[in-house]
Amino acid sequence: MLTYLLQRLGLALITCICISALTFVIIRLPPGDFVDAYIANLVASGSSVSQEQAAAMRIEYGLDQPIIVQYARWMGRVLQGDFGVSMVWRRPVSEVIGDRLWLTMVVSVAALFLTWAIALPIGIYSAVRQYSIGDYLFTTIGFIGLAIPNFLLALILMYLGFRYLGLSVGGLFSPEYVQAAWSWARVWDLMKHLPLPAAVLALAGTAQLIRIMRANLLDELRRPYVVTARAKGLSERHVVLKYPVRAALNPFASSIAYLFPYLVSGSIVVSLVLGLPTVGPLLLQALVAQDMFLAGAIVLLLGVMTVIGTLISDLLLMWIDPRIRLEGRS
Amino acid sequence: MSATTAESQDRWAEATQLQLTWWRFRRHRLAVVSLVVVVLFYLVAAFADFLAINDPHATDARRSFIPPQAIHLFDEDGFNPHVYGLRGVRNMQTFQLTYTPDPNRKLPVRLFTRGYTYNLLGLFETDIHLLGVVGGQRTDGIFLLGTDQLGRDLLSRIIVATRVSLSIGLAGVTLSLLLGVILGGISGLYGGWVDTFIQRVIEVLRSIPTIPLWMGLAAALPNTWSTTQVYFAITVIISLIGWTDLARVVRGRFLSLREEDFVVAAELAGATQGRVIFRHMLPSFASHIIAAVSLALPAMIVSETALSFLGLGLRPPAISWGILLQDAQNIQVLANAPWLLSAAVPVIVVILAFNFLGDGLRDAADPYG
Amino acid sequence: MAERTSLAVRDLAVHFAMEQGTVRALEGVSFDLHAGRTLGIVGESGCGKSVTARSILRILDRPGKIVGGSILLDPGTAEETDLIAIDPDSSRMRGIRGGRIGLIFQEPMTALSVHYTVGNQIIEAVRQPADLSKAAARDRAIELLREVGIPRPELRVDAYPFQLSGGLRQRVGIAMALAGNPDIVIADEPTTALDVTTQAQVLDLLRRLQQEKNIALMLITHDMGVIAEMCDEVAVMYLGRVVEYAPVLELFTAPRHPYTRALLRAVPSILATPRQRLATIGGAVPHPGARPQGCAFHPRCTDFMPGRCDAAAPPPLTAGCTGASCFLEVPA
Fold it and tell me: Percentages helix, strand, coil for chain B, rounded to the nearest 5?
């Protein structure tokens, strides 16, 4: 078990390093740099910047050094908690990001829980009551979730909400709580607004997981150990829930590992459509303006959070399957 | 059990892998229907301009936001398909120009009429379209799905967008397929540390949330690039992550096939590595690859749509479903012109069709797998 | 000789509704199980042995369905119960499973769930019919493991199945079947998946337990050697019907049905001439959906009588009566 744990930790670490490197490379890809964009902005608004001022700005932002050095300096500071200064907002990046990263995670995790909470019972039901009306109903809903990309779903729901309910669907807080300080009331307000974005995000993943659960459970239900359990005189419900479901949970849990990055990813686009105060809109802005530190910090943090989430799901898998716990492999 | 005649049993025994797969596939009616739908879509893509009615690029501010117009089939004279010409009426209080159908101006709708010129299948220029109005002014037309803010016919734009959206999916999948087959093949065939290394790489890639990466890559594309260059760059970007799924399928197949007796027999008989791979192993899982590809395609199409929707993918004057949906982002605009959402319909239909098709192919290729 | 009859199966008929048509898996199957005696059920794969076992316990999977006959528990007594008449999901039937009738499985590898310890699975079987505290149930589980000959049972009770060898796992399976103190035990090919030495040990164990607890044992197998060693009476099944029934000695010395004779001929003998070709039964077992007309065995029968054997099915056997279901037995 320890080897398994160390292996997953090591992998997570490597992934984080790769993410940081990739992020940095991406940010530096566009020809020109922030100073050019900044100058272009100034020129457009009428003022001008001299060559010396440009050069000085470059030195100030460290843009004159080779990439490796810049990366090393950046990573060094990041590990100390300093993400640099946003060039657009002229404030420390951590301040600009503020709550947004946590809110992104809250929405993604809420979607994850929703997915589990819905997919597991429905998947079990569909397998046990195969070919029933409920099975067909859920399969159909599943297909809808599969077919409509989450941002389209968000768009359609927004339109329907606006058109028929007259309200502005979206956002994570009621107007009075948007800028307020954190309090229990604010948390409760957040909870009230979470279901819609979480549901939109969760639908596609839920559909996928229902299918996986249903298929795996159908397989497991035919196996000899299920018959053994029945022969012991246990009730059908007890038999199903204790044995084949536990076995089918394995592939289910390993699907979660790659569900989380998908959800975090999806939350970016969905939050753009629904106008949520998460990291998505901020990232788009930063990328367009080539605000290196801000964009890099966001992508890095997103990646790291995702890796942590994946690690947690790995641990979950380990807890579920005793074979991994005792032998280090499944 | 119905008695199978000796003859049909012979047919069964002599059928090739491909024939068996096809027979099994035929039994899934949903998959067959989806196949037809997919083929239809690609036909539309090929003959897009022929099927379009109005010039998808022609803007006219006066035709802005016209609601969908129906084709009326009958009038006093009997069967006479026509549309009403549009007359602008200015609301004296809001000064807003609204278009109302003018029953007095009837424009006949006929098949194979002349419209805007285009290049048919890249072969020759023509201006014949499937449907069109006869007579009428230059600004008249059939607006079955209404127009957008710049007065462009939405239906024609959706039809023409089919070409771009579907072909990007195809191109992206081809690239992913290449990467996936090569890397997955190496991984599965050689095993050992090569396999472990590639597996780790795949795991790392899959743990990274894709959209931020794509956004970063797409935003890195210079503004000065032409539409075609952007098109190819987007294709490459999308396939850079998509190959991992295909690689896993290929690797899994190679790993299980390596142990099969017929492969060992071929190796013992002295066949070269290449021959063993291409002549013996590949045919066994070709149908799995096809199934995986058809399941990967909708993901590609959605990726392009999402990126263009965000404004980071293809840019106007290119036309794709994602670009069309960009106009629908603003909720105020959407409230007044809900027909702008109609570009979502082909996206959804295509995704469903490819998914059913892929499922059917996968079941046909390996009913036990 | 007047042992109690624990279970009486009469004219059991089971059908499977498949998309190609109805498959008649069992027809007119009748036999008795007596306390303290072993009935062997022998036949090739697909003849309906396992279906019989599952039907008795009412755990037959869809699309299987019992369509006729009766399964009488405690026949001839005041508590006589027809198991077919009870709802299979009712607590009464569930109490009978495990509490009165236990089942031992063929594949020890797959019959136990890998997600729970051996102890957990046995305790579950112990507590189901009886109301015991957790501690008492655990003690009982350890006791059961000791009874089936597992060394260090107090340690093994917390082991997972994959940590045990095949032989030990099968012993666990036996312990689980006995957990509810049944007086009838059905063993579905308990030694098929084991090597010969382990096989001998498990059979010894079964015999000892049967004698100690006066259990009525129904032993399903395709191995004639096991039959010879373990059983008191034998029922031979072919394609869903009992084709011969006899006490074990009589079956081996004077088999009546051509199928039984062929089966016995097919057993390799250590006394045979070297390099002598092994005897086989010509043809193959037909698909149950494509049952031959008349006597099901006639296409492969060495004593086939045209006009009789392919015209009508031979009369079925009455339970407990020695004989064969064959036209050779019926006066012309």
Answer: 60, 15, 25
- The CB-side HSE value for A185 (13 A sphere, CA atoms) comes to 6
* Minimal-distance CA residue of chain C relative to B1: C20
Contact at CB, C113 and A246, closer than 8 angstroms: yes
Prior bond of B317 cis (ω within 30°): yes
**Long-range CB pairs of B11-17, under 8 A, 24+ apart, other chains included:** B17/B283, B17/B284, B17/B286, B17/B287
Question: Which residue of chain A has the CA closest to C106?
Answer: A224
Tokens representing C55? 């039907």
Distance from CA of A291 to the nearest CA of C (A): 51
Do C168 and C207 fall into the same domain?
no
Residue whose C-alpha is closest to residue C149's, from C124, C169, C179 = C169
Distance from CA of B4 to the nearest CA of C (A): 11
- Map tokens 């597992």 to a residue: C150
C192, C317: one domain = yes
Do C15 and C128 lie in one domain? The reply is: no
**Chains near C, with 3+ CB pairs < 8 A?**
A, B
Cβ–Cβ below 8 Å for B2 and C287: no
| Confidence category of residue A44, pLDDT binned at 50, 70, 90 | low
Distance of CA C176 to the CA centre of its chain: 17
- Chain segment C199-214, per-residue pLDDT in tens: 888 899 999 999 999 9
Same domain for C159 and C213?
Answer: no
Which residue, among C59, C113, C126, C131, would best test binding to A if mutated, counting the most A CBs under 10 Å from its CB? Answer: C113
What CATH number does the domain containing C323 carry? 3.40.50.300
Angle ∠(A49,A33,B208) on CA atoms, nearest 5 = 155
Of B188, B170, B168, residue with least CA distance to B180: B188
Asked if omega into C63 is within 30° of 0 (cis), the reply is yes
| C154 and C19 co-located in one domain | no
Residue C57 domain boundaries: 5-100+182-269+277-329
**Beta-carbon separation of B355 and A146 below 8 A:** yes
Residues of A in contact with B213 (CB under 8 A): 22, 26, 299
- Distance, in angstroms, between C96 CA and closest chain B CA? 37
Q: Is the ipTM of this complex over 0.85?
A: no
Q: List the subunits that have 3+ CB pairs under 8 angstroms with B.
A: A, C
Residues from chain C that touch A227, judged by Cβ atoms under 8 A, are 54, 59, 61, 105, 111
Q: Are residues C14 and C136 in the same domain?
A: no
Computed on alpha carbons and rounded to an integer, the radius of gyration of chain A in Å comes to 24
d(CA B296, CA C226): 55
> Each residue of A77-113: pLDDT tens digit?
778 877 777 777 777 888 888 778 888 888 888 888 8
Q: Measure in Å the smallest separation between the Cα of C290 and chain B Cα atoms.
A: 7
**Chains touching chain A, criterion 3+ CB pairs below 8 Å:** B, C
Number of compact structural domains in chain C? 2
Of the candidates C156, C181, C206, which is a domain's last residue?
C181
| Rounded Cα–Cα distance for residues B65 and C67 (Å) | 69
* pLDDT tens, residue by residue, B112-143: 877 777 777 777 888 778 877 777 666 677 78
CA distances from C158 to A324, B138, B225, C143, C154 (A): 17, 86, 67, 14, 8
Q: A268, B215: Cβ pair inside 8 Å? A: yes
What residues of B are in contact with residue C290 (Cβ under 8 Å)?
Answer: 1, 3
Is the same domain home to C177 and C287?
Answer: no
Q: Which of A230, A234, A323 minimises the CB distance to C114?
A: A323
